[in-house]
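Incident log, structure service

09:12 report received: a user says their structure output differs between two submissions of the same chain.
09:20 pulled the input from the user's history:
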Amino acid sequence: MLSAICILLISIFPLITATLNLTLPHQHPYPEAVVQEVQRKVNESISRRQLLDTTTNAQCQTGNPIDDCWRCDPNWSKNRRRLADCVIGFGQDAIGGKNGKYYIVTDSSDRDTVNPTPGTLRHAVIQDEPLWIIFAADMFITLKHELIINSYKTVDGRGAKVHITGNGCITLQYISNVIIHNIHIYNCLPSGNTDIRSSPTHVGHRGRSDGDGISIFGSRNIWIDHCALSHCTDGLIDAIMGSTGITISNSYFTHHDEVMLLGHDDRYMPDTGMQVTIAFNHFGVGLVQRMPRCRRGYIHVVNNDFTEWQMYAIGGSANPTINSQGNRYTAPVDANAKEVTKRVDTDEGEWSGWNWRTYGDVMVNGAFFVPSGHGMSNQYAKASSVEPKSAVIIDQLTLNAGVFGAPRDNSVSTSYGGRTTPGAGGSGGAGTTGGGGDDSDFLGMIFGNGAPSKLSSTTTILLSLLIILVLYITTNHGG
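09:34 re-ran on a clean worker, output below:
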């Protein structure tokens, strides 16, 4: 009997591994359809701009489909929720607080993380009901610890100058449907080992955070738009632990080493279902690497302006699908850093089959993109769609990247470990492990218990095997 059980376990082990590796519950089943829809909307907006006389309304008909969706309405401030209809890409289902009330933040303080003061941003974001959060005036919010945002929230900084800085910064953990729009986020430092309220009914003890600008952990339907991020301790935006359905658009990134991490660990199979759209962003001065750095998943990089990197722009490991369309890549002066792409700690014999594609990209100052892959990958169809024609007007598409009306920080400095270091030098590489966060696994997210499980991935597989073994014995031996 024991030998039969061992044979059974050996035979079904690959099946269990493949099952865990296959999908996330909320990933889009046809990522290429999403990619093609993005390109269709871009081309429609560009065509509309070319047909109309744009001199009469310079803020409208830019060719950027997100901005044209709401900025053409002169009374947008009376219908702020329309913004939720303008998202494109994999985060297209992120409705934020569209179906909720307005919450006006009137107090910029952050004195108590357990009992937040009504009127503060912390009090607004932890509520259980959907809320569209706006600001009564310009605010500098210095956080005491992580700002943990609950589901169905929009943080809308339009009409005010809103700066978020301090300890922990923004955390989205095991939640869904959040929009963060028109916010400055910078100088974020590690913090924690304290109690923080995450909902009106739950206070939890938090370990030490990494100091990300925005940390997305096991979450879905997230849209980050028109933000300006710089000078954080770890990443400016990190999405890990099975997060999916994300769009990062129209934002302005400067002065940082490891800009954006997508994927927790090379061995973390659920991140195969991560799907992220990166569109119309400006990657500016003082950036070194990770724009983004990808593990597994499907990453669509479309119509961005990369004006600086010191090591590489787009990197990856563990066979991510990277679809680069209509971007402008401007290489640095350094002759050893002209390549846009970097396969991290992987031999060419392995990465030559990875699905990395470039369509309609513009290469400047000797930049070059090394494509790879042939035919169909195991997880996704070949990255292909109508070749974009929009790279020729990349200046127009990214004209308003960042916070509306804010001056852009083009001084030469780079952030290392939360410090601002003069000069454009930088060092450091990207390893194959790490990525922040604790080692919670996928089961908590799948079954929606609202709390991270402490099981390791090995334990997950063993438990899955045990369940199947019990079902097998029960079925064949009558319990």
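09:41 both user submissions now match this output. Likely a transient worker issue. Closing.
09:42 reviewer note: The chain has a mean pLDDT of 83. The radius of gyration is 22 Å.
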